[in-house]
Amino acid sequence: MPTPDSDAGPGESARGSAPVIAFFDVDNTLLHGASVYHLGRIAWKRGHVGWRDLSRFAWQQARFKSVGENHRHQLAVRDRALELVAGHSVLELEAIAVETYDAHLQALLLPQVVERARAHLAQGHEVWLLTATPEACARVIAERLGLTGAIGTRIESVDGVFTGALLGPVMHGGHKADAAARLAGERGVRIADCWAYSDSRNDIPLLELVGHQQVVNPDAALARHAASRGWPVMRDRPRASRP
Question: Which terminus of the chain, N or C, has less C-beta within 10 A?
């Protein structure tokens, strides 16, 4: 498989060995930018949010692209997700997620990272998205790419309608590491055999947890940490942005 100069990636030796999981972050790792912003665009188009909300989403998207994730951004992810879905049905969010992928997210995928995910699948590994993105959206991305599954931020629903309350924490930081360890345990996978892909300092707990790390388009803090740990770094752009 094609791999960046910095790392050989999952190799042929993995075939037929013990089970392995590769965990992929979504925003600025699997795709360029913040997926929830594009959910907001489609929600606005469908009349679920107002123009002021969309303008705020646009500012936060630009900020995210320029400086990466931080704790304030994660709080904004939580608030946006709740704003998007409160009072709406699970089926409505699923429809928004499908339209968002087809209209926007597909073009923002990072091709080298997608190739890595498919290489893991070819080696018999499970590939899970692990993201702060609302889980309904993450599941659509995973399904369209043929991945194993997705764990995202979960939002409470009653009788098929979202209440606007979270079920558990926003899926980021140490919570991602906890979720990865829990899934590996359920699957009977040694966490030391697993892989993790991320762009953000917030995912250092996840990257430290697994045995194989791949840093993608890192923010400044993660770039420094990766250099100190000797972790490989991949840089990629969507095909649409290439000359």
Answer: C
Catalytic residue, chosen from 5, 7, 25, 219, is 25
Check if the beta carbon of residue 110 is closer than 8 Å to that of residue 31. yes
Count how many domains the chain has. 1
Q: Select which of 27, 199, 203, 236 is catalytic.
A: 27
Query: What is the residue range of 55's domain?
Result: 12-241
Residue 2 counted as domain residue: no
Assigned domain for 52 exists: yes
| Gyration radius (Cα) of the chain, Å | 17
Query: Which of 71, 82, 4, 66 is CA-nearest to residue 34?
Result: 66
SS3 content of the chain, % helix, strand, coil (to 5): 50, 20, 30
Task: Answer yes or no: pTM beyond 0.90.
Answer: no
- pLDDT tens for 42-101 read 766 666 554 455 445 444 444 444 445 555 555 555 555 555 567 778 888 888 889 889
Distance of CA 187 to the CA centre of its chain: 20
102 is catalytic: no
Q: pLDDT band for 15, please (50, 70, 90 cuts).
A: very low
